[in-house]
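RECORD TYPE: inverse folding
INPUT: structure tokens
STRUCTURE:
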């Protein structure tokens, strides 16, 4: 991108301001600490943090044993947030997630007993091993930040961030997530196998549980809320919104996609780009920010029109075929 084109997106011609230095320093320390635990995966760490800063929810899909759960644990611990882990299994019931009304004989009334969903960070481990009925218990919580039990609504904590892990669909005992549930996740990422150097370090260092127990939080719930507010205030120019709309429109008329992207997908894309820009120390969003998060935000929302076409990489193709307005 040329300097003149970049100025169209900055809203401040001739100068590119940086975000508050204290925010930049805090973010750098948070990412550094995450990368000390999740070795060799700086992009995944930054995307996960961006998702939380943007106020979204994260889906991590990969084979067992590559660090999906660990990434969720270290993110919650470093940010100083309360973590609740739910192991999803085929016999899990919605009440096991959201809570249940318990009868109190002393008062002859029912009292709501909150479930593990009432936490600042909820780690939904192996989400696709539970039945669709149990999976759906997360829908209202993720979208509305509240749950309804026996006709009464209960507000969830703030911040509220769901990190769900799932195994590949070809593994035994998995139930595919419906499109409506996938759409509730702002981002979907994979971890992947470590490179040889990172794997050697993993094989020789202390147990990950020992490392996690020694981590000191660098932030708190209030600071995370401030960071989310800062991301929401990152300048998004009309030109940048035009670019996001161009991508949405291109997906809707594409012959190689089964269906186009929804307005919700566009909102998620812009919010994620704002968070990514903030983590880069910028006070405005440029097209490169949007392109960096596009695969994580859009790929799980896109389906190829033909089964022979692989589902991965559709967002990258969409970007290649869409000109910046």
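DESIGNED SEQUENCE:
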């Amino acid at each position: 991108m040329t300097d003149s084109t970049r100025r169209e997106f900055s809203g401040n011609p001739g100068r590119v301001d940086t975000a508050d230095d204290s925010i930049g320093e805090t973010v750098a320390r948070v990412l550094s600490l995450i990368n000390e635990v999740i070795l060799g995966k700086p992009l995944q760490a930054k995307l996960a943090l961006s998702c939380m800063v943007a106020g979204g929810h994260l889906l991590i899909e990969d084979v067992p044993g590559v660090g999906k759960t660990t990434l969720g644990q270290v993110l919650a611990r470093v940010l100083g947030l309360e973590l609740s882990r739910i192991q999803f299994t085929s016999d899990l019931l919605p009440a096991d997630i959201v809570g249940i009304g318990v009868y109190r004989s002393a008062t002859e009334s029912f009292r709501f007993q909150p479930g593990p969903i009432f936490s600042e960070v909820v780690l939904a481990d192996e989400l696709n091993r539970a039945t669709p009925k149990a999976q759906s218990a997360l829908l209202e919580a993720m979208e509305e930040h509240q749950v309804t039990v026996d006709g009464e609504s209960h507000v969830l904590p703030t911040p509220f961030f769901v990190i769900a892990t799932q195994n590949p669909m070809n593994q035994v005992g998995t139930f595919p997530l419906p499109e409506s549930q996938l759409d509730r996740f702002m981002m979907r990422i994979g971890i992947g196998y470590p490179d040889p150097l990172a794997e050697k370090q993993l094989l020789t260092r202390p147990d990950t549980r020992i490392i996690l127990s020694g981590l000191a939080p660098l932030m708190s719930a209030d600071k995370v809320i401030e960071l989310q507010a800062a991301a929401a205030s990152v300048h998004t120019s009309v030109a940048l919104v035009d670019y996001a709309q161009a991508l949405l429109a291109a997906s809707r008329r594409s012959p190689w996609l089964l269906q186009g992207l929804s307005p919700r997908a566009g909102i998620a894309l812009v919010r994620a780009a704002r968070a990514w820009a903030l983590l880069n120390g910028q006070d405005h969003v440029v097209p490169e920010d949007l392109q960096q998060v596009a695969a994580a935000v859009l790929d799980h929302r896109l389906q190829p029109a033909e089964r022979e076409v692989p589902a991965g990489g559709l967002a990258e193709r969409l970007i290649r075929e869409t000109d910046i307005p």
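NOTES: The chain is about 45% helix and 15% strand.
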